[in-house]
Design goal:
single chain; about 230 residues; Rossmann fold; 7-stranded mixed β-sheet; 7 strands; binds S-adenosylmethionine
């Protein structure tokens, strides 16, 4: 089974031999990949909706893996139990806001050695901020590219310590900056172009909200230019 670059970047973050929970599994491609390649002894694949869970069931049957993966229907981490002894929780392909609310609701379960592999489709900075505020440490960050779309992957673990990472880089990715990730520059250049276009479009607006937005955009553009120049 060949995964897309986004799914492959997520699967690659799972240490071999880990017991994995894939929250919001939908098609169950990641569980199937992990099981087929013997990277995990068993996977719990969950979804909050019956339709995606049915799709997951069909993929597992297709690969004769129904016995090694367990499907659970329910919201976020509420379907997991201490005795599942999960090593890695994957939450991928959802908005950053949804990922934060799933993490918030399941926080007690995460204050162990569980590795989180998160791939927010939007609001990645919210996820980094939530992790920093709740004393999780970044283990690794990665970027996958599919055509002109970039996907960020965050690997984190609860440490109980406040992060030393500069708050200013939470919008960009402290680990991506520190390791000068090869896809960071093109991703930030694309983001810069979009922010500059938004700023040009907001030029004539006069309301207090519009003025605030312009100030925000100017600040974001300055930071993006600073990091791009350094890369
Ligand atoms: C776009 S799919 C992503 C599938 C896969 N994880 C991926 O990265 O390709 C998002 C899935 O998350 C599920 N989902 C959304 N909110 C959820 C929640 N709170 N708990 C569990 N699953 C959720 C949706 O039903 C949907 O199947």
């Amino acid at each position: 089974m060949k995964l897309t670059p986004r799914l492959q970047a997520i699967a690659d973050k799972v240490p071999p031999g880990s017991r994995v929970a894939d929250i919001g599994t939908d098609h169950a491609y990641i569980p199937v990949y992990l099981l087929l390649n013997r990277l995990s002894p068993n996977v719990i694949a969950t979804d909050s909706r019956p339709g995606p869970l049915q799709a997951a069931q069909e993929t597992l049957e297709l690969f004769s893996l129904s016995q090694t993966a367990e499907l659970r229907l329910g919201d976020g981490l509420s379907v997991l139990r201490e005795e599942d002894n999960i090593d890695v929780i994957i939450i991928a392909g959802m908005g950053g806001e949804t990922i934060c609310s799933i993490l918030e609701a399941g926080l007690p379960l995460l204050k162990k050695n569980t590795l989180l592999v998160l791939q927010p489709m939007t609001c990645v900075d919210w996820v980094r901020t939530w992790l920093a505020d709740n004393k999780f440490s970044l283990v690794q960050e990665d970027i996958a590219q599919e055509e002109d779309r970039y996907y960020e992957v965050i690997v984190a673990r609860w440490s109980g310590k406040l992060s030393l990472a500069s708050e200013k880089y939470l919008t960009i990715g402290p680990d991506l900056v520190a390791c000068r990730h090869p896809l960071l520059k093109p991703m930030l250049q694309q983001r810069l172009e979009r922010k500059e276009a938004a700023l040009a479009g907001a030029g004539g607006a006069n309301s207090p909200a519009a003025k605030n937005r312009i100030l925000e955009l100017e600040k974001e553009i300055l930071l993006l230019r600073e990091v791009i120049a350094w890369l």
